[in-house]
Amino acid sequence: MDLFLVRHAVAEDGEDDFARPLSKKGAKKFTQVARGLFALELPVTKVLHSPRLRAVQTAELLAAPFGAPLEVVEGLDGPPREALFDALHGDGVALVGHEPHLSSLLAWLVTGDPKLGSAFELKKGAVAWVSGQPRPGRMCLRALLPPATSRAAR
Fold this sequence. Notes:
The chain has 154 residues and is an alpha/beta fold. The protein contains four helices and six strands. Helix 1 (24-39) runs parallel beside helix 2 (53-66).
């Protein structure tokens, strides 16, 4: 299974953390990231995302060039839990969420230890591509794509 972990794009500042939208610049740059990922022919078939507005908007931008369906997954709004693995069906699933939780999830999937997340910190708009069985320590890191790299691919 190919799995893509995507950190939301740059958002506006605000007091209500759940309602912070993407900044205009963040949306523009992530649209370029999504087009770059599409140009690289990554197999994104479904986009799961946190319920926070900036993740919803990032997921919409990511899904657009792929024509991928979207789904809210509450488990992407906090630290990774085993229950999240139950939502991972099919190949080419993208998960759009937040730091430090995505890095912890990445470390958990690749090394089996979520405490190693700081070794995999994702910039806003970055994508980690892993493959294998979506279980702790059973996936292999195929690529860690900073946003500038994905934008350049378009």
